[in-house]
Amino acid sequence: MRRLLALLCTSIAASAAASAAERTDRILIQGISAGTQTVVVEGDSRTRAEYSYNDRGRGDHIVATWTLDAAGIPVEYSGRGNDYMKAPVEEHFTLADGKASWKNRTEQGEKAVTAPAFYIPANAPLDYFGVLARALLKAPNHTLALLPAGEARIEPVDGVRVGSERIFELYLINGLDFQPSPIWIGPDGAMASVSTWVSVVPSGSEADIPAMMAAQEKQRNERSARLARELVHVPEGDLVIRHARLFDPRDLSVSESMSVLVRGERIVRVAPDAALEGVSADAEILDARGRFLLPGLWDNHQHFSELDGLLDLANGVTSARDMANDTDAFLQRVSRFEAGTEIGPRVLRAGIIDGTGELAGPTKMRADTAEDAIKHVDWYADHGYVQIKIYSSIKPELVPVIADRAHARGLRVSGHVPAFMSARQFVEAGADELQHINFIELNFLWPNVQETRNRDRFIKVAEHAREFTPDKPEVREFIAFLKKHHTVLDPTMGAFEGLFSGDPALPTPGLESVAPRFPPQIRRALLSGALEVPKGQEDAYREAFPAMLKLLKALHDAGIAIIPGTDGLAGYMLHHELELYAKAGIPNAEVLRMATLTSAEVMGVDQDRGVIAPGKLADMVLVDGDPTRNMADIRNVSTVLKGGRVYDPAAIEKALGIAARPGK
């Protein structure tokens, strides 16, 4: 392998020297063109890159330059522009006389450097990671220390070559994520990065993306299958959980000293420890030791990617709802969850439909006519989806067409409120559910704010949320309207706390305690994506999220069904979402009911899930502490069961490079 790497390094270096001075890459989101990356080599060591794309009015735009030493390691980097949420970016790094110095929106520091070390910017053009790959190929043992922290190592995936105009070879970089990060390197020094979400490839190589994706999926699936074998325990016979404090979301009770008999994937009997009967002599015993036992948790707003299943199970999430994804790799992943060849929760699927235009969502399911809308609904219904998610660019007149067809096919209807339509009109047109609490706030700004496909759906809420207190007549009236229509709310409160109340230099709110256990580069990626607060709007932004919590409490008190979802980091952010509901003043036991039984009832699967009772699926979570008294205890997941299979969260975290919790 070392000889292969040496030959590849020589080939790459020679080809790069002969390459053209300028290259244009295409940025695609779920296969749809979204922007470009232009890379200009200025001499032997200096490069200029411009990286820009549009994702529904959001998206990075970075212009950067960097200078490399003979080993391909940056000695200078400068970048300007804006990040994904359009906050301004200015970043500088220098390495001189054994001292590295850096400054960006979220970090500032310096460090003595006595050995080669590669600086990773906070917001860099994607080509910069090709620079890292090439430097790693030159480095001793193909390993480099990273700045500000961490270490990276590269290895080839032997024999994996793809390309029509260019031949790309697949490498894996360890140290940037919870799992090895794939990157493709071409013979002229070009790089490519592909995923089910964003892909960046040189112009002319777009047709190679499917083959690249297939090669990456093969490698990842092999790793996932290995982890699925190593990280699950399947009892050979009966399993008995003893000495548990059992939470019942039906009456919000907590019963001491309870036992649960599990046979196969189902619960057979629930009884006090001394009264449990029908246990076989060779039954496996799981001693809960007084831990809190509750039904498996739900996350009702996810967009599954490679590692979300593992993160969910590590945090007690045994049921989830995907609220928009691709229609190929995602369905295959769910099939692997179901087959047990990949670790993940039970997933219900919501299929997205949007209109057309530059602000349309990243989906191929786009409709401007009733015929197209009906065709897309039918496709989702035929492929086992249970819900349609209408997105922001759909023409308002198509909403009742979609809703009627979906309801006729037995599917629920929800979504973002489309632009040029109020939340009231959306519900009247047939929506059963609203995603994101900001669309309720926007209802109070109608008709002054109608264009909600852009950042106004965040900014205008930040500016005005504090004005709409639960005592206002228009607020009380709209809540009563939602109650009358039995409208469900998926509020994703944590997403708005990060936007409105986050500190760019700190982790996303809710991740402060867990982020230090993550690998260094993951910690950096989880810094808050807070909006830039305009001058003069400081008070409005500061008061926006507390006002939204008060609105959430008023919605709950009125009897609106609320189902927790994150639209963020899987598993860990769900715990914080529940903490926010408790912070809003909703009693803890009622919050736990939302995350278990209410979610199962809304999604129509309460015959199997949501309660620990005979005949139900054996989806359960053991927690140290008592979240009915202290919601933060929900984070202390010690054991997870999904269908009678037993998972150790600590073992899953270790496999992902996550450090053990303090004291464990």
Would you summarize the structure shown here?
The protein has 664 residues and is of the alpha/beta class.
Structural notes for this entry:
By secondary structure, the protein is an alpha/beta fold. It has a domain at 2-229. It is 30% helix and 28% strand. The strands form 5 sheets. A 9-stranded antiparallel beta sheet has the order 8-7-6-5-4-3-2-1-15, with no helix packed on it. Strands 16, 17, 18, 19, 20, 21, 30, 31 and 32 form a 9-stranded mixed beta sheet that branches. Strands 9-10-11-12-13-14 form a 6-stranded mixed beta sheet. A hairpin with a 3-residue loop joins strand 2 and strand 3 (46-53). Helix 6 (370-382) runs parallel beside helix 7. The relative contact order is 0.10.
Topology:
Layout: H1 2-18, E1 22-29, E2 32-42, E3 46-53, E4 61-68, E5 74-82, E6 88-96, E7 99-103, E8 108-112, E9 117-119, H2 127-138, E10 143-147, E11 151-162, E12 168-174, E13 181-185, E14 191-192, E15 198-202, H3 209-230, E16 232-233, E17 239-248, E18 253-263, E19 266-272, E20 284-287, E21 292-295, E22 297-302, H4 308-314, E23 317-322, H5 329-339, E24 346-353, H6 370-382, E25 387-390, H7 399-408, E26 412-415, H8 423-428, E27 433-435, H9 438-445, H10 456-464, H11 473-484, E28 488-490, H12 493-501, H13 520-525, H14 538-557, E29 561-562, H15 572-583, H16 588-602, E30 620-623, E31 637-642, E32 645-647, H17 649-655
Parallel strand pairs: 9-10, 17-20, 17-21, 22-23, 23-24, 24-25, 25-26, 27-28, 28-29
Antiparallel strand pairs: 1-2, 1-15, 2-3, 3-4, 4-5, 5-6, 6-7, 7-8, 10-11, 11-12, 12-13, 13-14, 16-32, 17-18, 18-19, 21-30, 30-31, 31-32
Helix pairs in contact: 4-17, 6-7, 9-10, 10-14, 12-14
